[in-house]
Every structure is written in structure tokens, then in C-alpha cells.
Amino acid sequence: MSSKKFKVPSSARRHIKIEQFTQFVSSSRLRHVQSVIAKKDNMDGILCLAGIDSRYNEGSLELLNYLLFGFFDVRKDELEKSGFAEEVIDDLMILVCREHAEIYCNPVNYHYLLPYVSHWPSVQFHCLADNEYEGEDDDASEEFKIKSLIAMVSNCKVIGIPYSGRAGVLSKSSAPFNPMAVEKWPIIQAFALEDFGGGGFFTLKHEVCDVSQELYRIYNYQDPVTMEILLTEHFPLMSRQWENMMKCVQIALTEPVSPLLPAKKIAEPLKSYFNHGLVGQKGREGRKPFVLVDSEADKKQLRRVQAGEDCGDPTDVKLDALSTHTVMCQAVSPHSPLVCARTYFLTSHPYKILTGNGGQQESSSSHLDLRSAQITIYSAFCLSDLCLFFA
């Protein structure tokens, strides 16, 4: 490390910008991860390695961000301005066991991490003192890290690895987990060196299994912090794209002559928002955005899009004064379980809704066909509000 002395960051709670963060919520996330271990009779712990030590493994990063409330994303700008190298901030290993947790870090990122983990029950730190740490390039620091890993897993026979991120879990094309892929990680390769007494190759001494699928389920659990992020970050983005879609509809309806409902153009904001969020992630299963118009909005087609199938671009529809048109839309957030689904009816003959008579609803027409009845119901209960569903 450079001889320049950097200011040690404060570990005060005020540096965590999440308003709903509490020690209780933080400990509950740790317990959720521990519950994954408890459900597997033979598993002793889940090991999570950050940065170059795991070749920047996506699954490990997601678990760290879950336990540390997005530390490596939310505080990215702050960390870049700190003056410390990325390798120093990423110098982190966490082993979660049934009744305790062990953390390896360095004297620099220790001060950043402390407010996130200091309240964890039975937490143990492996960290050099300030006067002993000389940075990532120092042999003594590297030796201490390797010995810390060996000590952390010494009592573990079966170790879970969060190998795949959300995209890998949801992908149809993901290859089966191969424990030998973990052996290629730098810190795991160093584990086998005779000088440190690790006892041979990591995957021969310890049984390694993938717990990505089990962890993916707990990532979707709702807690106060999750709701805060949904409402302050993900919801405004999805709502903005929905507004862009509705502007396209409004423009089409104001055309004076032979108005055309451009279904492909209407769907573009929702699909672009979703696809842009999944750049670099292929083969994802699950809900996808769609727009279905008139004859395309039948039960068979709806089941296909709900299953995540790509049904191509919707067909443009010519509007006329005598017809009523059905438009079914769904927006999906690419990085959260937030989904919005709506059905709209476009008609040149609006039906007036009257309330009264003991709460009964009346229509200006006494003989309504099925489509008219649908318009009445949706006008009364749905069109004024945005409906949200969690996948």
C-alpha cells in the first residue's frame, strides 16, 4: 500500500443511507441465511468470497449485498472516492454457520463493515491490527488471509457455495454446478498449498454444494428495507415506463382521421425497460412484459405470455367509432419482484357509473352485453388506480 495515510472512515450508523435499516432487520437476514443451512441436515455452513478471490462470482456478490444491504452497490461512489484500491475494499470472506458467523476482513474495510455486522449474534472477526497490515501486495497479509480461511472452515465438512446469481437461477441454459469450478478461484487454489496446512485440495477435504436456488427464495422475502427500496427505486422506474406507454395510447386516440393503435410502439417502453435491465443475462425464465390487443388477448395467448413465452410483436389495430377494443398490459421490473398487470377497454361510447340505491351500481343502459359489463366493472374499480402484484 502507498505510504500515504488515508483517513479511517467512521463506522457511525449515519453512513448507512437506508432509513429502514435496523439491527433487527439485519439480524433477521442473517437468520434467513442460517435457515437454509438448518433445512439441510448435513450442511455445516455457507461460504461467501468477495472480489478477485472468487473471480468476482455473481452469486457471492448477491449474497454479500443481501447481508450487507447492497453495500458494494449503494456505497460504490463513496468507496471509489475513499482513496483505497478496489482490491482492498473487496478483501472480504464471510462464513455463515447454524449458530454463528465468521468474517475475514482487513483494517480498512473493517470500519466500513462494522455497522452492518457488529450486532450479529456470535460473530467472530479475523482481522489484522492496523500496524500489521501492509495491503494486498504484502506477503504477510496474504498468508494471514489464507490461514484465516483454513481456520474458518476447519470444522465444516459440507459447505454451501452461492455460485449462481438470480439470472443463473432463472436461466434455462445454465450448466449444472461443478465443484471443480470453485477450485479455480485464487483463494481456493492457495488453500491447497502445503505451506499453510490446508490438508490438500479444498473440494477433496470439504464437500461443496450449490445453494443458489435456496438463497434465491430468501432474497424475495419482504422486510422494511426491501419495501423501501421497492418504493423509492424500482417502483418509480416502472411507473415512468408505464406512463410512457399510456402516452403512446393517448396520442393514437387523438388522431383525427383513421386512428391506428400502434401495439408494437405501445409495448416498446415496457420491453426496453425490462431488456435493458437484463443486459448480459440470457435465458431468464419467469414473468415478462407484454401487450395484447383484441383477438390476441384470448385465454390461450394469455397463458403463454404468463408462462414467460415470447409471442412476438403485437399487431396494430385500426380504431373506429363502433368497436370496443381490449388492451392487456404487463410490466415487469428486471431487478425486483415487482409486477404490474392491467386491462384497458377503449370505446367511443363511455358508460356512466352511478352510485347509490344502497351501494348498487347502475348504468345508462339497461341491457348490457358482456363487453359492456366488463367496461362498467373496470371503470368502477380499476381504471383510477395502479394495481401492483408481487411475483
UniProtKB/TrEMBL annotation:
Q: Where is the DAAF9 N-terminal domain?
A: 9-220
Domain DAAF9 pita-bread-like, by residue range, is 223-372
Q: Signal sequence: where?
A: none
Q: Name one Pfam family in it.
A: PB_DAAF9
This chain belongs to the protein called: Uncharacterized protein C20orf194
User: What gene codes for this chain?
Assistant: LOC101856835
